[in-house]
Amino acid sequence: xxxxxxxxxxxxxxxxxxxxxxxxxxxxxxxxxxxxxxxxxxxxxxxxxxxxxxxxxxxxxxxxxxxxxxxxxxxxxxxxxxxxxxxxxxxxxxxxxxxxxxxxxxxxxxxxxxxxxxxxxxxxxxxxxxxxxxxxxxxxxxxxxxxxxxxxxxxxxxxxxxxxxxxxxxxxxxxxxxxxxxxxxxxxxxxxxxxxxxxxxxxxxxxxxxxxxxxxxxxxxxxxxxxxxxxxxxxxxxxxxxxxxxxxxxxxxxxxxxxxxxxxxxxxxxxxxxxxxxxxxxxxxxxxxxxxxxxxxxxxxxxxxxxxxxxxxxxxxxxxxxxxxxxxxxx
Amino acid sequence: xxxxxxxxxxxxxxxxxxxxxxxxxxxxxxxxxxxxxxxxxxxxxxxxxxxxxxxxxxxxxxxxxxxxxxxxxxxxxxxxxxxxxxxxxxxxxxxxxxxxxxxxxxxxxxxxxxxxxxxxxxxxxxxxxxxxxxxxxxxxxxxxxxxxxxxxxxxxxxxxxxxxxxxxxxxxxxxxxxxxxxxxxxxxxxxxxxxxxxxxxxxxxxxxxxxxxxxxxxxxxxxxxxxxxxxxxxxxxxxxxxxxxxxxxxxxxxxxxxxxxxxxxxxxxxxxxxxxxxxxxxxxxxxxxxxxxxxxxxxxxxxxxxxxxxxxxxxxxxxxxxxxxxxxxxx
Lengths: 331, 331
What we know:
Oligomer: homodimer
Largest sheet of chain A: 7 strands, mixed
Number of domains of chain A: 2
CATH architecture of the largest domain in chain A: Alpha-Beta Complex
Distance between the termini of chain A: 15 Å
Number of helices of chain A: 10
Radius of gyration of chain A: 20 Å
CATH class of the largest domain in chain A: Alpha Beta
Number of strands of chain A: 17
CATH superfamily of the largest domain in chain A: Medium-chain alcohol dehydrogenases, catalytic domain
Largest interface: A-B, 37 and 37 residues
Shape of chain A: globular
């Protein structure tokens, strides 16, 4: 039996409705990064109803639709926290799962669960108008793509590329389109073109078509790169305008070749970005509410998780699995 | 005999006093990049007196101290040229040497010469108060380091690192110091520390000292990286603050390992930059005039150039060779 912390005066208790399945969950379950502490309860794309609020909780009421993403705490004192960039907390944020925690001790447990307790300051309000099954992935795939698009001020005057059409990429296309940019899906797979257009892409660029890539050289203001593994970034850097930026959000690993000349001949930037701050995450959810943006999901039962993990490895999902957490009680 | 173009109505003729020796000159002489067209006359750090002006020349008079850097022309019509970024001309700028030119045909010839003819719009005014021998390298080593420091708004509130102490690095230290930044020389070589302090560095950080590097992690707003060859950039990215930028100005080649996680966990940027635009180059020269900044040079005779090239390969110069072009007549 896993101990759960009793709600403190500033905590809320959430009865979880849905939890998204992020590739990170699988990495933790398999200990791919060698940092997993067992037992691990994954899940950081959490949406549900608040059933209890502490005496000092002012932002939420019982019955509110709420959400928790990748973080449940941070130091609150460092420059990053003061700037609202809790994701870059200089002491390291407390992750929603498998992260050391003082109360009740041990490690945090995530959203593959019926309930979760968290401090109100790391809890988000979910707009009530959205179809709830598609909202959970906004908390990781959503903010991971929204944050850099917003940070680099993507707008209607810009041509924006999204590389890779998966859980992250499909949200990137939706957001770039909703922000008004001329949005180009950049993919190796022609078959994904039709899907990308239905998600909001204005154009499809097949990255294996040298002639098409050459025609688009120097045309992009910003590129969001969601490829989750090492890859050659040069062909994408070549697409950027002078002073353009490509932001990597997928590949948490060494990129084995970056041509510095590509950066120099055009003052280009290769950047990275990690989820988003709490305030920005709330802004993203509000933006989704206004623009009716949700993730395209396949809802599964808890007992289908192993199959889902296997299909995830094969990218066989459009575009995110979401667990109906009510099914956990019956497992 | 090499044909020289007759000055047109918008040209000036410069009697060259000094020409700096850039490593690029050696690469061209040796055809290291496989693009040299012979005969090649190198030299793109040129300073001298104007001895002739065309009828339409308004910016210069005979007798003016003038300079030419790496470019002598660009298309003038593309967005980069319109933005004053001729160095990123989308059609490619006309380099000062070994670049195709319509008048008189053939290739441009550079500053290892007694005279040069160029359109007034690519000619700079050199402040008269500077010691002339140290001014030539400002036209390449100077602008290459000034431009990114200025583009990324380096100022008194910032901690700035300069990696590598050579022709570029020593100018980077002088500029960062003059812009008011807390300037840190980052080098593998403890011996260079004393020199760096005399150039204006507030601190020396030895990059092979893991403990010192660890202490400085997350402390830098901006890093100017002048290392001229492939190297691991991760240890330097680790020094950057959240949202910090490292700009590469030395290594025109593939960087064989860039850790994307370093970029992601701090929204950091790896950028590149190439010389600077003409207006910015003039601003840099004016800045040098105001702050009495010149390059530290060793003046050589034209007949010493082979020896200088050999010493350049061994980094055996503090910090730039400059040829006294009056000595060419006696070779």
